[in-house]
Amino acid sequence: MFFGTFDYIILGLTFIFNFGVWKYKIIKKRNWILYLITFLLFGCIIPFFSMGFEIQKAIEGQEFVDNFTLLYTYFRFPTWWLIGILEIGFLRSLLRK
């Protein structure tokens, strides 16, 4: 399974945040701090924690873990980068109006 529980929770929170921005106008205007926070979250912090939780779940109860078995966890970074790019584009389109 490519997404874990942590990933689904973060995607749900992102959806709720986007709904709040769209429906209730939580953020009134765009600024560079918003984009910096989004870049840091989706570029570094979320993929790092996602990979850590997945590694902990994968090695639980196993005596020997091969590094090749956990290679797929590195693909969390490009996946979250793509989600972050989509998030920045979505926020730009909402705040432009």
From TrEMBL:
Keywords: Membrane, Transmembrane, Transmembrane helix. The chain crosses the membrane at residues 6-22, 34-53, 73-95. This is Uncharacterized protein.
